[in-house]
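look at this one:
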Amino acid sequence: MINVYFIHHSSFAVEFADKVLIFDYFGKDRVTDIPFTGELPEFPTDKRLYFFASHKHKDHFDMDILKPMNREAPVHYILSKDTKMSPNFMKKHGLDPEDLKSKIKYVNPWDNPEVDDMKIHCFRSTDAGVAFYVETNGKTIYHAGDLNWWKWEGAGDLVNGKVARDYQREVKWMEEKIINYAFVVLDPRLKQHMFLGMDHFMKHVMSDHVFPMHMWQDWDAIRRFKSRTANKAYTDRVVDITMENQLFEFPEE
């Protein structure tokens, strides 16, 4: 069984038999104006943990993930380079830079690192940092971070047009791939433009299970997105998230 945990906001964990991939986790008290309640599950200590952080925004990265953990198996970090901190800053916040040096892999857009048995591709975000495409355990995972078709009222045609082109360019790379688990932005703050990124992704990428994220606890955004089309082949792939700390189970085959 493969377990996918929606923790909160854009934070997900994908648990395999031998490892757990944790994306964009932050403690629930990091964003003070939103009452997030998600908790990181307690995973077996003999499973390797891999923390991914797409960029340094406080709703995507928490330096506390770098604190020592009492585990049998190793903990590794794949972090966007903009999260990098100086050794002195780390020490000031109770972190050991020497110990972490071998555990952290900093990445830039379009990097293709291999970490243990994982093959990773990093996309350039249309906001900050990177998005991740990961191949491991015979499965593929995409986490968008803040890679989205952002169209903000008042931003102007020049800015919004560049974001649209940049987003379409990054998604084009995925068009010939099958993604098993995709975590894709659906942000209600964009109002009438909130569906652009998800629509484009669904029309151009074959993904078995698409998890909307970055919804700021507006779960009804999923219903509103699905109500826009009667195409079941399209909507049935979108997972209904109804609360934080939600578990989804999938057979390995």
The helical segments are 87-92, 97-101, 157-172, 196-204, 220-226, 232-235. DSSP finds six helices and 13 strands in the chain. The chain has one domain: 2-250.
